[in-house]
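Before any further analysis, we paired sequence with structure tokens, yielding the entry below:
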Amino acid sequence: SNFILANAQGRCGFPIVYCSDGFCDLTGFGRSEVMQKNCSCRFLCGADTSEPVLQSIERALDSRQEYQTEVCFYKKGGAAFWCLLDIMPIKNEKGEVVLFLFSFKDITESRGRSCPGDKKEEKQRSEKQRSKKPGNSHLRAARRQGRTMLHQLSSQFARRDRGEMKINRNVFENKPSVPEYKVASVQKSRFILLHYSIFKALWDWLILLATFYVAITVPYNVCFTGTEDSLSAARSTIVSDIAVEMLFILDIILNFRTTYVSQSGQVVYDPRSICIHYVATWFFVDLIAALPFDLLYIFNVTVTSLVHLLKTVRLLRLLRLLQKLDRYSQYSAMVLTLLMSMFALLAHWMACIWYVIGRKELESNDPRTWDIGWLHELGKRLEAPYINNSVGGPSIRSAYIASLYFTLSSLTSVGFGNVCANTDTEKIFSICTMLIGALMHAVVFGNVTAIIQRMYSRRSLYHTRMKDLKDFIRVHHLPQQLKQRMLEYFQTTWSVNNGIDANELLHDFPDELRADVAMHLHKDILQLPIFETASRGCLRSLSLHIKTSFCAPGEYLLRQGDALQANYFVCSGSLEVLKDDVVLAILGKGDLIGADLGGTEQVIKTNADVKALTYCDLQHIGLRGLCEVLQLYPEYASKFTADIHQDLTFNLREGSEME
């Protein structure tokens, strides 16, 4: 909508307190140029604007009546346009007219682009102007618009098009990550793989899964492949085993072409240096782990347990996992998953060893122990006893499940006794298992506790500060209204910044980096036209003096007579400027309020109250810091002092209204 709102309670004229973006688009005037002007719209007049029509508008305003007319106005650039003007008084709950709603509709097209110089026709039309009755359909629409306009101001602010801001794009362009004179030294071969690339990260996860597969299958095949059934089961996994071996071989090839970080912190791209570094570190471990033992099945070579024992060398690849744990230490869920996986993997290894001990006790032919071992007891319970120390017994599947059950119960607790150690060897292994379990409890579950606490640390900090605030209120016996305002402000600001103090967080960073971060955080205010001619150094200095603030509905940002400390930029929300309970201006997103620096007084007193209508995010630059920066850049100071009047939506300096 193309409309303006004017204060109907002004002592001197009827100043404009709000104008829509549509009105700015239609007339070419900015909001700061329109605010506080008289709503009689004489600033839109030109050579062909009818004076009788303007006088009729002023009479309608004085009598607080509805009015409609067609009038020729002029845009800021001097172009004339015909406008259908509707004036609608808006009353408060007491029936008093507090605002005027002016609605502008461009009817140049419908008039067939009439020549503005036809004064005779315009005079005839002006003589026919009169106050319209409430029954007029257009006025009914205007009345409906007037009733809803104030309720829609917040949405109007949110829909403002920020594309019209004059942006100095050279200021916010991305700086090159590497200086031009060093670009040549960073160029790498197209066949070199970056160790921090997305492909390398995905490849490392694939190798990690393959390593876990090896860590599970190799101990199982070594310990449970003593029968023909288990040998046939091992042959059934030949395809997956060979696929894993091919992955390991391909990983060796990629590692010869993957960059690394030297001890001095430099990324090494030279292929020769990469090869030497890899051979001197992990090459031989990866080579042994990638030996294709499973190809023996293809050539029908008899596979003995010795071959399976050689495959345990592949478990050395788990050392590479320890090397990469630091990379994922910042991801709590990832570390938690890896720790639990390592705990389950350890239980699997212990289960394999527990089964081997039971088999050795059966095959020892010791008449005192062969029939009391845990495997013999398991066979009797499952009604599948061993005959002649080796024939019969439970299936491999049942034996493995029982072994895993025993090791997990021993690692996590003291066991339940249904699968227990009877021989001396089994008891010694059980003692070692419980000691390892105690160590795993300290390492794994201690880390799990720390991770969970870290995940909820922000929530814990919120409750701690909330409790401190409530204790403060209780100790000092603050009244209920003040208590409610404090609690509401704390909860709302926490939801905005999550308890993070940006100034404290950036305090230890170098000034150059802090300035870049500050320019990004405060780019909304730095893109105002007033800063368009400022140099990059000036903007960087200004950005370090800009702070963020927050205002809740009903709270006063400033009160009349206060010493003004800063100029404020509205990032979101809406505020109203009041003086003696009379609305002087309604401010929204993109408005700048404060004072100019043209006066000689050291302390600037405010001439009105500024009160929040909704939740408002604000950015403000302190006047003291602003003056310090302007002293450092005198070539920009004169330009700033001359142009600040045009960019201030409302000047709060005491005495500015007289000027």
